[in-house]
Amino acid sequence: MNVNGSTSQQGHHEDLSIHVHVVDEMQVYELTGSLDIATSPTVRAALVAASERGSHRLIVDLTRVDFLDSTGLGALIGGQRRAKEFAGEIRLVAKEGQILRLLRITGLLKVFSVYPTLEDAVGDGQRVGDL
Amino acid sequence: MVPESLAAVLDAFVRGDLAAASDRFASGAAYREPRKPPVVGHAAIAERFARFAARGVPYRFDVDDVLVNGGRACVVYRFAEPGGEGQPWRERAGCATVRFDERGLIAEWREYEG
User: Fold this and answer.
1) A101 touching B (Cβ < 8 Å)
2) What confidence score (pLDDT) does residue A131 get?
3) What ipTM was reported for this prediction?
4) What is the value of pTM for the model shown?
5) What is the full DSSP assignment across B40-108?
6) What's the rounded Cα separation, in Å, for the pair B68 and B86?
7) What number of other Cβ atoms are within 10 A of residue B70's Cβ?
8) Cβ of A78 and B72 within 8 Å?
């Protein structure tokens, strides 16, 4: 896996930070904190900005997200909708735990490609099963 | 492109025409709301919607996003009800995952709020 380009802080809220870096030509949005009603506008704005720049193949790394509510899911769903309009996609990274349970419960594993590690997401490797 | 049945349901929800909304659910459909037992079957869903409409309480249903992926869709919405005398409306955000049957009718509507 080749990490290239500079890491930048694209968004920041008291409860959430977004670091963007490039791995093998895919933009990775690494979120840390809570993705909820207070912070989801920041994430939505970052994903809209990516789309407006022509970046339609993104990875959103949720490994360091400790809380995700329906508005956060809405931001991700909106991002996926925009990406798909340009034949792109948003891949998610989520490890076993609360966030992955939520993605299962809501049926979103059928809508997003979800990977257990960033390496898997970059290489379109093993996906999280819907079991 | 949003399937015709889902577009019709969303339009009916927005207009407050819950009878029209229930018409787009398949005979064996499941309607799952948070913290409530699932409502299964077209007749039961129609009855559930009719009971809700019979309360006569106004509501707002705003659709923020719809993502369609094969035989599934996600709806990002906001639902609001009056907050009581002199109080602002209470709005809550949610998303629903929707599954369709082979005829394009809604086979499952599963809401998540919180």
Assistant:
1) no
2) 47
3) 0.82
4) 0.87
5) ESHHHHHHHHHHHHHT----EEEEEEEEEETTEEEEEEEEEE--STTPPPEEEEEEEEEEE-TTS-EEE
6) 39
7) 9
8) no
